[in-house]
Amino acid sequence: MKPKILVFSGSTRKGSYNKMLAKLVSKHLTHAKADVTTICLSDYPLPLYDGDLEENVGIPENVFKLRALIEAHHGIFIACPEYNSSITPLLKNTLDWISRIQLPDEEPLQVFQKSVYAVGGATPGVYGSMRGLLHLRTVLEMSLGCLVLPEMISINFAAKAFDENGDLTKAHHAKRMQKLVERFVKEASHVKLQDN
């Protein structure tokens, strides 16, 4: 089976290293025979989560669109920047909003537990988004119940980590990328979507 994989970055900044990483992961996944969909969260703007807003106005339409995208894919890859040793407000807000949808006859957070997840990150500093990735794993695994692969791609000194074609310049980064992609495609191939 050709797995369908959704890829996005927790940053929408122009020139974002994590958008570059998401693009590169998409390319590698496509070469590995996955059916890849890459999105940018700026195309799905959301207000800051507020319980009163949800009660008075309801859940924004873009939340339902993002949830539908998750439901339609066997695997989800998130490129996670690191802000103050944690994940971006944009990414956290997106996950918080999606977690608020519970359809009739559905267990809480069930949508997050149907796919397999993989994560990676890139930063200009020495840690390569590792602290942000650990926080993201905590949110995904402990709070949302996601299955997250142990393999991660952590790109440090990101300003010099990508060449002019967007490929990785260091062999150890490229090796980690290949290992993650191979495992990700294998595990996503075993996921059964509701409509399949």
TrEMBL record:
- What positions does the domain NADPH-dependent FMN reductase-like occupy? 3-158
The alphabetical list of record keywords is:
Oxidoreductase
EC number of this enzyme: 1.7.1.6
Name of one Pfam family that matches: FMN_red
SUPFAM superfamilies per UniProt: Flavoproteins
Which GO cellular component term is one of those annotated?
Answer: cytosol
Q: Which residues form a coiled coil?
A: none
Question: Can the keyword Oxidoreductase be found in this entry's annotation?
Answer: yes
Q: Extract the GO molecular function terms from the UniProt entry.
A: azobenzene reductase (NADP+) activity; FMN binding
Indicate what this protein is called per its UniProt record: NADPH azoreductase
Q: What's the source species for this entry?
A: Pseudovibrio axinellae
Please spell out the taxonomic lineage of the organism that makes this protein.
Bacteria, Pseudomonadati, Pseudomonadota, Alphaproteobacteria, Hyphomicrobiales
Gene of this entry? azr
